[in-house]
Amino acid sequence: MVALSVPATVLAHDFEVNGILYDINGNEATVTHSANNEYQYSGEVIIPSSVTYEGTTYPVTAIGNHAFMGATELTRVSIPNSVSAIGIHAFSSCNNLTDVNIPDAVTVISAATFYYCTSLTNVHIPDNVTEIGNNAFNECSSITSINIPATLTTVGRYAFYGCRNLTRVDITDLDAWFNIPFGDEQSNPLLYAGHLFLNGIEITDVVFPSYITSVPDHIFEGGEALTSVTLHDDITSIGKWAFYGCSNLSNITIPNAVTTIGRYAFANCKQFTSITIPNGVTTIEDYLFYQCERLTNVDIPNTVTSIGLNAFGNCYGLTSLTIPSGVTSIGHYAFTLCSHLTSLTCLATTPPAVSSSTFLYSNINQATLYVPAASVSAYQNADYWKNFGNIQAIVSPEPGDVNGDGDFNVSDATLLINYLLEDDLSPNAFANADMNDDGVANISDIIILINRLLNSN
């Protein structure tokens, strides 16, 4: 039943049949809207597959831009299989619309098609859809599940913003999922749903295929059911928001080939306890480990030169951390609310640039800061660094004590050799291993170390 109010104005459509407005496009008809959207649909609308006007029958092939926009009394729409295109804002702000079918011939869900359809509960995306536009399902807050077809190649910005009652996302092809370029953090429905199902089986363990060398942006954001992720050795980058909110993922091994990790990549991974950032990474991006509440051990490589905004914010479990010598800047709120931090070692000879918020609410007035002996005075007089309760010189261990156990023996040589093979040495171990003080740990240091061992015996 269609209820349609008809004002006495000039209309911006070609004809009306049974309360539905149409435009003629060649030999086809498009469902359209009135001038100034003055017609208001209500109840259930059933769109026919063809319509006759002045003796000519036209197939109905499209729903035009803004066709039903703002029809707040519209509850259900039945769209025929003859329709292959649905325009932008077609059902925007139809906030009592509960059910609509998208025909199989549709390949694009246009921008803001279902924007603010807050009562919409039942939607199925056809297998032929290749694109979901910006804001397509923005604030569809009653949808509880959504399917993502294997044909999808583009998801626009804010496509699923505010779909806060989503509980599952269904896919049929994991490889296809890996290749979806999500437009932003609000375009992946998994952010809200938390649970991804492959052919009806929930995904909890992910092994990245060999052809993926860059972990895509947003790929598993919000994936709270994930417990295991395996990244192969040829991966060179991890995209922004990639594993945001994977709250049951307890650890991940970042391959040594990785040189860039995007912002928010591991934020809200609340089960993380330890992370090793590989050599080659130069920047710890904004919010990278934000709210990793149980994180207690972080190994930052010597290649890092900057630590971003809120990078370790709300990491309550951190009690100690070593900042490498090459770091020159640490962003706002980088260590805010690291309330259990009792010891911070900064190897930089010049105090890195910080702000009043860098260590906000981290009780640094009760913490000890360890710095190079020649730099104690500089830190004691540097803004915000001087707020540490105790600033002490780093006590240098015996040269060659690579593992820092207070003894100098063959295990130190073994550790250094393994470093050269695997390029994996903590900043403290690196400082102890640089026997000739040339700023690198290499074969020359091994020779010096072995000669010292031989001479000591």
Distance between the termini: 98 Å
Globally, the shape reads: elongated
Structural class: alpha/beta
Roughly what percent helix?
10-25%
Q: Roughly how many Å is the radius of gyration?
A: 30 Å
Q: Describe the largest sheet.
A: 6 strands, mixed
Beta-strand percentage range: 15-25%
**Helix segment tally:** 6
Q: Which ranges are low-confidence, i.e. pLDDT below 50, for 5 or more consecutive residues?
A: 1-10
DSSP E strands, number: 30
Mean residue pLDDT: 91
Question: What would the keywords be for this entry?
Answer:
457 residues, alpha/beta, 4-stranded mixed beta sheet, 6 helices, elongated, disordered N terminus
Question: Can you offer a commentary on this structure?
Answer:
- This protein has 457 residues and is α/β, with parallel strands linked by helices.
- It has a domain of 47 residues.
- Helix content is 11%, strand content 22%.
- The protein has six helices and 30 strands.
- The strands form nine sheets. Strands 1, 2, 3, 5, 6 and 8 form a six-stranded mixed β-sheet that branches. The protein has a four-stranded mixed β-sheet with strand order 12-14-15-16, with no helix packed on it. The chain has a four-stranded parallel β-sheet with strand order 26-28-29-30.
- A hairpin with a 2-residue loop joins strand 15 and strand 16.
- The longest helix is centred in the C-terminal third of the chain and has 14 residues.
- The chain is elongated and about 105 Å long.
- The chain starts with 14 loop residues before the first strand and ends with a helix.
- The N terminus is likely disordered.
